[in-house]
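User: Okay, second chain of the day. Same drill as before: sequence in, C-alpha cells out.
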Amino acid sequence: MHKIIRPIEKFHHLIYPRLLKLALALLAVIVVSQISHARQQQSIEFVQQFREIQNDFTRERIYLHTDRNWYVHGDRIWLSAYITAGSLYRPSAISSVLYVELFDPEGSLVERVQLRIESGRATGSITFNNTDPRSGTYRLRAYTAWAKNFGDSYIHESDIAVLSEDGQENIADDESQSPDLQFFAEGGPFIAGLPQRIAFKAIGSDGLSRSVSGWLYTQDRSDSVRFESEFNGMGVIEEWVSDEAGAFAIAEIDGETIRETLPEPVSSGSYLNVDKNETNFLVSIQSNNSQAQSAQLLLFAHVRGEIYYASMVLMQEGIGNTTIPFDQFPTGIVHFTLLDTDGIPVSERLAFNKNSLDNVDTELQLDEDSYGLRDEAALTLVVADGENVLVPAETSLSVFDDTYANYRQYSTDIRSRLYLETEIRGHIEDPGYYFSNEPNADKYLDNLLLSQGWRSYDMQSVSDRSDINLFSLPEEGFSLTGTIKSGFRGRPLENATVAFSLENREGDMDIVTTGPDGKFMISGIDVEGAASFTLRANNENGSDRVQIELDNQFSNLENSISPPRRNLVELYFNESDTGTESTPQIAELDNLTERSRDARVRTDQFLEAQLYGELDEITVTAESERVDEQEQTRRIANRPSQRIDLDEKDNLSVLPIEIILNQIPGVSVIEKKIEINTGFMNFGGTSLPPPLILVDDVQTDVSFLLNMSPADIKTINVFRRAVELASFGVSGTGGVISVRTRRGDAGYAENERGTITGRLRGYQQPVQFYSPQYGVTVPRDIEEPDNRITLHWEGDLSIPETGGTLRFWTNDVPSRYRIVLQGITENGIPFSATRTFDVSD
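Assistant: Same drill. C-alpha cells below.
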C-alpha cells in the first residue's frame, strides 16, 4: 500500500502523567491532614480502586474511516480503522482482530470481515455481496472482542446511504405524535428545595431530535418556567426548585401534558454545578444533607479514566466552591465526581475541556488550483501541533466526487468519535458541530453532556470487582471451540485430548484437553484468508471412539441489529444543505449508477484491463433449479455465468474434480494448477494471479478444491467476465470458482474415526485500492473510460515530521472533488481536515 514514509520513532514530552502524579500526591497530603483516619481510608480506597480498575481493564476505542458516506449498491467500501488504548490514545496492543460488519436496512447481517490489527491500525474493504439491490440506510459496525466488554459506546457504528435502481427506502415518522421529552437534573437526582439547572432533550419516533417549547410546572402549579430547545432538541432551564420529596413536576407543550411524572425529587442530597470562565472550571457544590452541610467533601476529576485532579472542598452552610484551570486537563470529557463523608460517590457532572496544546493544524496544499482530465495532482500534507511544531501522524485519505451528495460537514469524524461518542449514551446528531468554529458550539456541547452525558459504568460498583463481568478476553488470533463426547452415549468427556493442525504447517500442532463439560478451545490461530484444519481427539484412555462437535466459528457474534431509523438517502441526496454548495438531486441516479457499474470493473484492479471477444457458454435450461442469491446478484443480463449442477449432470459426479472443471469452457486444470481464461490483458507483462476459489463463500485454495468429493458438491460456478469479477476486487482478477456444497457449511466432515476436517476463516487478505497512473502504468490515451467516483484512497498513510507529498491522477469526469483526511498524531491527538478542487475538460 502506498505510504509517504514510516513515522520517526520518538515521543514528545507529555505533561499529563506528571500532573496525575502531582494530583495524587496532593490528594494524599490533603486527605491525611484534613479528615479523620476512617474517612481518609474510605476516600483513598475508592480512588485507588478506581485507578486499579482503569489500569487493569484498559479500554479500546475504535474509529472506522470509510472512503465515502454514500454508495451505489455493489460498490466496494474501503475501510481504515484506528484502534487506541488507554486515556492518551496510544496505538492498541491489546487485540489483534477487528470485526467489521455491514447490516442492511432491515438490520440483517450482509457481510463480516476480520481485519488484522497491527500497531493500532487495520485496513481492508467490504462489499454488499448477497443483499437485494435496494436503496436504504445501511449500518457499519466495527469492534474488538475486548471492546465489547465495556458497552455499546465502545463499538463503532456509522450509517451509510446506499442508492440502487430499485428505488429508495421510505422511513415515515409520525410528526403528529408528541416527542419523547426527558428532563435531567445537573449532577444527579432532583433534590427537593435546592435550586438546580435542568437540561432536557426531545426526540421523535425515528430517534432524531425535535424542536420543542413549553412550560414546566410544579405539582400544585404554584410555580412554572418556560423552556425552549436551542439545538437538536436540547435546552437548559437555568434554575428550578423542586417541590417536596415525592412530588412530581408536570411538562406541557402547547397546553398538552406530555409527561405527567418527571423524576421524583429526593428529600436530601448533594450535587455538583459546573460553569466556566475564560480560563477555569468553576465548580460549586450544594447540599441539604445534614452530614455534608459543614463537612469536607472529596472532589476528584478524571478524563478517560486518568485522574488529573483530587482535592477536599470545605462546605459552609451547604455550599462549597473551587476553581480548576482548564490546562490541568487534556482535551476531552472531564468527569467531576463528588464523594460524600463516607467516601461514596453521590454526584457526577460531565464537562468538556478543550486544551489548546491539543490543537492540530493541517495543511492540504495542491500544486494547482484546478486540473484537467487524467492529470497528475500533487498533494502536500503537513501536520503541526498546538505549539506550531511539526509532528508525524498516522492518517487515512480519500478523494471522491463531491457533486452527487450533500457533504455533511458535521457528521462523525475521528475527533468526535474518540473525544465524545465513546463516552455518551445513544446516537449523537451532528457530532462534528461541537468541534467546529460555530459561535455556540461550546454551549450546545454542554447541553449535550447535561442531557446525554453518562458514565461508562456504575460508580457504585467500583468497590466490587465482581460486578465487572468480562465475557470476552483479548484476541491474539482466531479461536475454534467445540465439545468432545463419547462415541456411544454422546456424553461430554472430561480430560479428552484434542490435537489441532493447519494444512501446510507440518509439525505445528496445538494439543489441549477438555474440561468437565467436554468443551475445548484452540485459541491464537493466525490465518489469512482461509485454511483447512484437522482435529484429532481421543478420550482419557487414548481411544478414538469419540464424537467431535464443532461450534460455529462466529457463534458469539451478532447476526442482526435494530434497523437504522434514519433516512440517509433523503439526507444526502434530496434535502437542501445548510451550506453554500448546491444540492444534488436523486434524478442523477442513472448517471451515478452507470459510473459506479463501469468503475467497479476497474477501480478494484491492480492493473488496467479490457475484455476481448465473446466466450463460449454452458447454457442453463429453463428447467434448472433456481440459482442462489449470490449467483443471481453477480449475473449480467443475457450473459449468464458458467454453471454446472451435478444433480442435472449426474454422469459427471463420478469423475474427479479435475475432469469436471475441464468440462467448463475457459477453465483448464494441468498438474494440480487451475487457470481461467478471463480475457484480461496485463500491461505489465507478468502473469495474472490464480483464480479465487470459494467453497460456500469461504475462501480456500486449489488443493482443498481438488481433494473434495464430487458427491459433496451441488453446483460449480465460474465467473470470468470483467463485469462479473468487479465485485470480487483484486482477488478475483484471475477469475473465480464458486462451489456450493450440499451441506452448505464449507464442508466440516469426519474422515476417519476421531478425526474431523474443516475450514477456518481468518484475516481478510490485503487488498490495495487501484488508481491508474496515466503515463506511468497506463497509457494516457487508453480508450476505456475512467469513471471512478472515488479517485484515490489511502487507508494507511504515514506523514513524517517534515511533511510529505502524495500523487494521484484525475479521471474522465469533470466535477468538483473533495479530499478528506483523518488521522492521529504521534502524541495521540486526533484530527480531521478537508478541501475541494475542480476537474474540467
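The first helix runs from residue 16 to 34.

User: Thanks, on to the next one.
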